[in-house]
Design goal:
Blueprint: E1 4-6, E2 9-14, E3 17-21, H1 44-56, H2 71-83, H3 89-92, H4 94-99, H5 102-112, E4 122-123
Antiparallel strand pairs: 1-2, 2-3, 3-4
Length: about 130
């Protein structure tokens, strides 16, 4: 699980679409590792408009795929929008590294059928005021 913390909220993506919570507020609890990507000049209003656009297009819940379009993809995209920096490649490369193993290939059919949404967040929707 990866996410982006900005403007006092944690934003993440799963099979339910884009969600938010207080930092560390999913049932997964506090993160094992935090990567500081710096500061942003993007205002909260512009950021929420951007997220709304992503949630209606590229990061709809039904577009989620554990290996190819996941929370890492979302975090990387949002990080670049906010700071111009990507998240570390050891994170974004992990799904392809798993698939490169015989075990990963054997499990892929099962894993492709699983819907993943970290519990504890609120589905993001600019229209209802949640963030």
């Amino acid at each position: 699980h990866t996410s982006i913390i900005v403007h006092k909220d944690e934003f993440f993506y799963g099979s339910g679409g884009i969600s938010s919570c207080a930092p560390g507020g999913t049932l997964l609890g506090p993160p094992d590792t935090v990567v500081d990507l710096g500061n942003t000049e993007v205002t909260e209003e512009i950021f929420l408009e951007y997220l709304s656009s992503l949630g209606e297009s590229v990061f709809r819940g039904e577009s989620y795929n554990l290996f190819e379009h996941n929370c890492n993809t979302f975090s990387n995209e949002v990080a670049q929008f906010l700071t111009g920096k990507k998240i570390p490649s050891y994170i974004t490369d992990l799904p392809s590294e798993v698939l490169a193993t015989p075990f990963g290939q054997a499990l892929r059919p099962l894993l492709d059928s699983i819907q993943i949404q970290p519990p504890g967040g609120n589905t993001f929707s600019r229209h209802n005021g949640q963030s």
